[in-house]
Design a protein that fits this description.
Chain B: GO terms for molecular function: symporter activity. The structure holds two protein chains of two kinds. By secondary structure, chain A is mainly alpha-helical. Helices cover about 55% and strands about 5% of the residues of chain A. Chain A starts with 10 loop residues before the first helix and ends with a helix. Classes of the chains: A mainly alpha, B mainly alpha.
Chain lengths: ~70, ~500
């Protein structure tokens, strides 16, 4: 038996994987240090505003992936 | 009289929860595991959204999170990010888990592990060890419930009585209606928490600044205590590495309770829709965090940071708002503890007791709902009342196990070559490392102990799996039907004939 990993079989699947990895990176190390300021945006510290943006961005991306039929 | 209004509102919430939960199972045969355990797989996307959303919001959101904002500042936002990202995990894994459950009649994570690794022992072990973290979490939430009842009753309800009362309320509807009760009460609790969080947050902002904008609060923080607005925070303990690794370990920790909730959906599409919208529920956290930031100025030297929101409500809010906060916090605690008790009863019955004593599905079904009583009476209640100093270690150990089960899930969904030996030894090694780096050498290099555990767990999982016999072709077909041809493709042997002379 081969030791192959299950990977996406279609380009849509790869787009889905890439989109999810991008969201995770937007909420973690490479991006968070860039936003680590005392700046206030829309009445909240920039990290709080970014967290709210991430909430809607995640839902938006997942909606888009649903529409594309990724993970059906 | 007015001083009792918050208490009456809190008690009213409990009465409504019992009424809703008790009625949820009407006309259903709750002696069947599929009914009591997974609500006959009948929950639609809206109930799923509120079920999973409210389950993710615990007493921590109403007490601990404002406490963290009060004592540390923006580091608390990692909670919002990881809850959001857990939506991605639910979106990806939820439909797959549901499919397997319907096809092979699994209701628990342990059952799926047993099937995938052809090992009832591994399934039972996974069920038992993950229940440690799940029950420790239930204990924490029950303690939170008792604390709220104590505060709202002005000390008239002692902690021990609060523990018994909150568990008794849960037991009534949980026994009667199982996951249906959790679904309907979580829907109610979820909506209540959303309203309470915003009502309380906006009221606090209005009182502190005279308006409804958060800006003056944070401008004041920036002026007087700017360290609260950036990482590593006021206490200097949340660097970028810890932020990132705490989010990652939470994202890959799939709780037994989540698994069972996904199983309750009526279709795959319902899980996908609920998971897609799930992150939006966690907006509920934001106003409570703002309350914590306001507390920095209102209570400059509060002894217990976790009490900042309750303290503010009792000191300066109108009695109705204070009562709603009490009800909301109690809802948060109960909506998180009841799935833990339900999931543990289901898992002990199906993954441990049924295979060991070889009892029929019918008998297991009848027994499952009765198990909530020993779990509550012999484990959750006594530990909640005694509150042993070791509870935090029990919690760390339990969480450690849940995160370290991740490679076993990799073997279930991504890697057909994984074996039971690989999953077991990886889990064992990962657990030891997580425990050591949680308790004795906390989070070396600012990296979460659970991630250190996975650094050790994953290589062992892969190496041991490659060195041991894979599972049967039948099982591989069950879990990876579209890969079978590729996996068992014959490799043509290249024979070198000796050159003829």
């Amino acid at each position: 038996m081969k030791a192959t990993f299950k990977t996406p079989k279609t380009y849509k699947g790869w787009i889905g994987l890439f989109a999810i990895l991008t969201i995770v990176l937007l909420g973690s190390w490479p991006v968070i240090p860039l936003l680590n300021h005392e700046t206030i945006v829309f009445g909240m510290p920039i990290l709080m505003t970014w967290s709210v943006i991430l909430i809607f961005l995640t839902t938006g991306i997942l909606m888009l992936l649903n529409k594309m039929g990724v993970n059906d | 009289m007015a001083q009792w209004v918050p208490f009456m509102i809190t008690v009213s919430y409990m009465v409504i929860a019992v009424w809703l939960g008790f009625g949820a199972g009407k006309g259903r045969n709750m002696n069947k595991v599929e009914e009591w355990g997974v609500a006959g797989r009948s929950l639609g996307p809206l109930v799923m959204y509120l079920l999973v959303g409210a389950g993710g919001i615990s007493a921590y959101t109403f007490m601990g999170a404002p406490g963290w904002a009060y004592s540390k500042g923006v580091p608390v936002l990692y909670v919002v990010v990881y809850l959001t990202f857990m939506g991605i995990t639910a979106w990806y894994l939820g439909p797959k888990v549901w499919d397997l459950g319907v096809k092979y009649n699994h209701v628990t994570q342990g059952a799926a592990i047993t099937h995938r690794y052809e090992s009832p022992a591994l399934g039972a072990l996974a069920s038992f060890v993950t229940s440690i973290g799940v029950l420790a979490y239930a204990v924490l939430q029950t303690t939170g419930s008792a604390y709220i009842l104590n505060v709202m009753s002005h000390g008239k309800i002692p902690v021990w009585l609060g523990v018994i009362l909150s568990l008794a309320v849960i037991s009534i509807y949980l026994f009667k209606s199982g996951l249906r009760a959790i679904g309907i009460t979580n829907a109610f609790q979820g909506a209540l928490m959303f309203v309470v969080s915003w009502a309380f947050g906006l009221w606090a902002v209005k009182q502190f600044t005279g308006g409804y904008s958060f800006a003056p609060v944070f401008e004041r923080v920036r002026e007087d205590a700017p360290q609260f607005l950036t990482l590593p925070g006021n206490l200097g303990d949340m660097g970028f590495a810890f932020w990132t690794t705490s989010i990652l370990i939470s994202m890959v920790s799939v709780w037994q309770t989540h698994w069972i909730q996904w199983m309750g959906a009526n279709t795959k599409k319902s899980i996908r829709t609920a998971a897609t919208m799930l992150p939006t529920y966690y907006i509920v956290c934001i106003p409570m965090l703002v309350v914590g930031f306001i507390g920095i100025f209102v209570y400059p030297s509060l002894a217990q940071a976790d009490t900042v929101a309750i303290q503010m409500a009792m000191d300066s809010m109108p009695v109705v708002i204070a009562g709603l906060l009490g009800a909301g916090t109690l809802a948060a605690a109960m909506s998180s503890s009841e799935p833990c008790i339900h999931g543990t009863a289901l898992s002990y019955s199906k993954d441990i007791i049924q295979p060991i004593f070889k009892i029929s599905d019918e008998k297991a079904g009848k027994m499952t709902r009765w198990l909530i009583f020993p779990i509550m009476g012999l484990i959750v209640a006594p530990i909640s009342i005694m509150q042993p100093a070791s509870l935090v270690y029990i919690l760390l150990i339990g969480y450690g196990f849940i995160g370290q089960a991740f490679p076993a899930l990799v073997g279930m969904f991504f890697w057909p070559r994984a074996t039971k030996q690989g999953a077991f030894w990886g889990l064992a090694a990962g657990f030891v490392v997580t425990l050591a780096f949680s308790v004795w050498f906390p989070h070396p290099l600012g990296i979460h102990a659970g991630i250190w555990g996975l650094f050790v767990n994953l290589p062992i999982f892969f190496i041991v799996s490659l060195l041991t016999e894979p599972v049967s072709k039948k099982t591989v077909e069950d879990f990876f039907p579209d890969m079978v041809d590729e996996l068992y493709e014959e490799v043509p042997e290249t024979t070198t004939k000796p050159a003829s002379i």
